[in-house]
Amino acid sequence: MTERILPTGIIQQANSGDVDDNRRRLAAKVKALAAKGARLVVLQELHDGLYFCQNEDVDTFDLAHPIPGPATEFYSAVAREAGVVLVTSLFERRSAGLYHNTSVVFEADGSVAGMYRKMHIPDDPAYYEKFYFTHGDLGFKPIDTSVGRLGVLVCWDQWYPEAARLMALAGAELLIYPTAIGVADYDTPEEQERQRQAWITVQRGHAVANGLPVVSVNRTGFEVDPSGATGGIRFWGSSFVVGPQGEFLFQAPIAHECETIVNIDLKRSEQVRRWWPFLRDRRIDAYTDITRRFID
User: Fold this and answer.
1) Annotated catalytic sites, by residue?
2) Does residue 163 form part of some domain?
3) pTM, full prediction
């Protein structure tokens, strides 16, 4: 079976509250990766600024932009100038009082290939996303691009096998997770590492269960909690790419910025699915209870 190699760029960055500076650095890195041969570049979750969901502040909604709008205009130009398919993660203002955590995918010519609105919204200490975002309503639909059919999901979605499965069943050729996750300093080092390893393991499981590569791009660095209620978040980086058997193709460091190109063979999924025909053997006649909240 012939290979179909997709040079995929990932950018793990530590952010400041200066949106213009964050964008300038990202744009330079996207173009540098493109110059080295990347055809797809994936950015981390809410990459324009700090992770603002650590506290609840109505003035923070001023950071949101309509789609299309200034943010999409900027990243459209970046994708076009670099000549790459670009996966972004933006704070969308859909209407007054209605906001989404939205991934916009740009074609290499700068046009919008598609959008995905984050479906699973957390509400935990320092991750108060339900205050800011409503659940997505675009479904689990892959986005067709010139480099392949991308199953784009966002952060908290990565813990849910249903999301990965539905993207796979709809024909996604790889799963992509822009991410913002880290540890609280009050947890013991042992607990922090258990959480990081669980995060990696569950996504490798999605790769194995669906016979698809997974690209997960996280932020790094420490960001304070403006409210002072918690000790802030130390984002654990560790961005990674795995193949359809969960095998590591690349893993970034925990505490440092990183940008690189990973060659993903999209044809390998076909062979892996021939060896492990999980989709063939699914008992779809026996899964009706999966749509229930709990089986009492």
Assistant:
1) 45, 118, 155
2) yes
3) 0.97
